[in-house]
User: Which sequence fits this backbone?
């Protein structure tokens, strides 16, 4: 295939309140939209949600929030120029060809020779999604199942009728709000740890803060039951975003959880250590999941060899193409996967949902899971839902903490192959 026409734009979406993780806070998230055209009447639009704080916190802290977002959007724009110079057969092929150049360009515009690859991947989500849409149009593919290559289908061979919606409990979510959400049916809690309470980088203070956060949440929800997990207890999914410096410090947190009687609640401990941490983690008595450090399937293999026993897939942050390759590898190595969020818009939730709906349930779970926290954080969430190409469909938003997936969801593939009228106009189509 050859792309002859491209365009891109973005929209700034404000958050209800600052969203805290990795020791920092976001106030808005830019939604990028791109167009690809092949000159034969086929067009593909794709969306992306930018997060410089998640993809490279150094870029975030070294620049203003808007400047960091502007750099990532420049990387997206640069990718579209490269796309027009390349012939490709599949979106996997296209990503493999443009990722190295976009990564090097990202290093230049951020003035960061140690830029994390996830920055480049995050910038390419909209491009990759548009590539999948135009590829499927050119091939006459209208369903997500038919889109999957034969060697990846075994990794995504389930079809759940229910997915637990994992809400995000960032640093500043008050305890009463957490209890309220659990009572509403959102039983699988993703809890951000690794706070920097006094903004002085003191890791002892961080650990004390994390322990107190665990204690107050556990005391508040420990007697609430759920039918969707084998032990009937509300599970905890801790995300440290690489803030712990050693196994010893992490074990002090885990030992405290054991003292509280909360150890069996910890179903996932995601990315506790920084990316450069290369020690074996197989002796840690909880399921340690890799996220940011698995930029690619090659990185995922390294983490698996180091004892990581789960992988967070992020089609909405690392591209669908790269995430499918990671899913294939994890399946071959018998490592469970789940889909995590990037606080994305409703359309991207359904890109993520198509993968989550087909992954085997996590060990200990009776249903599948999908993290989605946009409804908690976007000021204009209702309007963003209205912009969905299938606005009003039953499966778009969770009810009582559960995404209910019917045959319509699977036959429509969550609407991902349909153009959103709103975003088409934003990109200059149909005006």
Assistant:
């Amino acid at each position: 295939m050859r792309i002859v026409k491209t365009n891109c734009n973005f929209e700034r979406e404000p958050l209800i309140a600052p969203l805290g993780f990795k020791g920092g806070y976001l106030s808005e998230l830019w939604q990028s939209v791109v167009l690809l055209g092949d000159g034969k009447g086929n067009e593909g639009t794709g969306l992306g949600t930018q997060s410089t704080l998640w993809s490279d916190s150094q870029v975030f802290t070294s620049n203003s929030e808007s400047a960091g977002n502007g750099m990532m959007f420049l990387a997206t724009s640069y990718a579209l120029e490269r796309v027009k110079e390349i012939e490709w057969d599949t979106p996997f092929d296209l990503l493999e060809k443009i990722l190295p150049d976009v990564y090097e360009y990202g290093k230049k515009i951020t003035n960061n020779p140690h830029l994390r690859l996830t920055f480049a991947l995050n910038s390419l989500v909209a491009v990759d999604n548009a590539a999948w849409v135009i590829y499927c149009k050119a091939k006459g593919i209208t369903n997500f199942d038919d889109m999957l290559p034969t060697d990846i289908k075994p990794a995504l061979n389930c079809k759940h009728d229910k997915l637990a919606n994992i809400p995000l409990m960032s640093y500043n979510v008050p305890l009463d709000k957490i209890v309220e959400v659990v009572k509403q049916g959102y039983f699988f809690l993703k809890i951000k740890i690794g706070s920097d309470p006094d903004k002085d980088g003191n890791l002892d203070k961080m650990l004390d803060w994390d322990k107190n956060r665990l204690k107050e949440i556990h005391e508040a929800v420990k007697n609430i039951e759920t039918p969707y997990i084998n032990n009937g207890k509300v599970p905890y999914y801790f995300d440290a975003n690489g803030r712990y410096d050693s196994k010893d410090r992490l074990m002090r947190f885990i030992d405290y959880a054991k003292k509280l009687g909360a150890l069996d609640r910890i179903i996932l401990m995601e990315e506790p250590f920084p990316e450069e941490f290369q020690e074996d983690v197989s002796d840690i008595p909880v399921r340690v999941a890799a996220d940011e450090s698995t930029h690619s399937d090659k990185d995922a293999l390294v983490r698996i060899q180091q004892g990581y026993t789960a992988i967070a897939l992020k089609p909405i942050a690392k591209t669908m193409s790269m995430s499918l390759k990671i899913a294939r590898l994890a399946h071959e190595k018998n490592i469970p996967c789940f889909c995590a969020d990037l606080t994305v818009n409703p359309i991207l939730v359904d890109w993520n949902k198509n993968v989550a709906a087909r992954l085997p349930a996590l060990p200990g779970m009776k249903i599948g899971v999908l993290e989605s926290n946009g409804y908690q954080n976007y000021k204009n969430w209702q309007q963003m839902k209205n912009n969905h190409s299938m606005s009003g469909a039953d499966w778009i938003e969770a009810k009582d903490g559960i995404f209910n997936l019917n045959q319509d969801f699977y036959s429509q593939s969550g609407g991902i192959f349909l153009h959103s009228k709103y975003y088409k106009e934003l990109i200059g189509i149909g005006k």
